[in-house]
Amino acid sequence: MSTTKQIVSRGHTRPLTEISFVEDGANTLLVSSAHDKTPQVRNGETGDWIGTFHGHKGAVWSAKIDALTRTLAATASGDFSARLWCANTGRELVEFKHKHVVKSVDFSVDSMRIGTGCQDGLLRIYDVCQTSAAPTEIKVVTNTANDGVNKIAWSTIDKDIVFIGKKSSSVEKWDLRQDPSAGPAAAAKLPDVVLPVMDFELNPKHNIVLAAAGTKVVALAMDTLDVVKTFDMPSPMTFQNEGGVSLSPDGSKFMAGGSDLWLREFDYESGENLRTFKGHHGPVRCVRYHPQGGTLASGSEDGTIRLWDLNFTGASTV
Which end of the chain has fewer CB atoms within 10 angstroms, the N or the C? Predict the structure, then answer.
């Protein structure tokens, strides 16, 4: 087990659902969502609270700040809505009503559109400049009794590509320029997995989509969604009900956390468990490397966000 410096950032009162870093000039923002209905923004280096978005009436499953301007935020909630906010003032700009729980939201790379993934099986695309216009609706799940959208992520290199992680253990790549009736441009059923995709992360620099589901982490080619690598997680760690995975910026390692409270760092080539970090008092719900790679953020069932200094020279492994 490794000991390392960590910052414990409190403020949420219920389990975390998602975290993400956004580079803001020389600084970095850390965006978080949780079951407490209040998505928040923090300093990505210190964990210090910056602001909270108030208005949702249900758990917030996803929160993003647009990476291009850092002036807009979007959230997805169990109150059957997604919302657009002013990231500078925290003021709600518009509510996008849905017909079911909204599990995920993301901005297009040009920040002109918002995508939402809803439990009614629809991917909805909203125009940020024409928020009163009806969204484009794409049926991405045909049988919502057995399948659903758990997470979406807009490509950071193509403004017309959206990736979807589903309850049916699959990841799909949708091209918004194509006729939706043709289905996804690419799709992958994660091998030897029967449980939902709990998390995935896009890594265009390395052409990798890293996904967590069941007891496995699976690396897919970002362009084709062909399976590149699979990693079995050590028992008793699983992604059955929660968990996250993130690839280091240099592509040499990945971090995963799930049901057993611990974070584990693995070598990407060999799959060797390099270090294990303990500190959370509940299952790990979400994990992301800082864009510079020296820090990792994790969010837990215990309601805390922890920032781990991965370069701490006093760290020792037992």
Answer: C
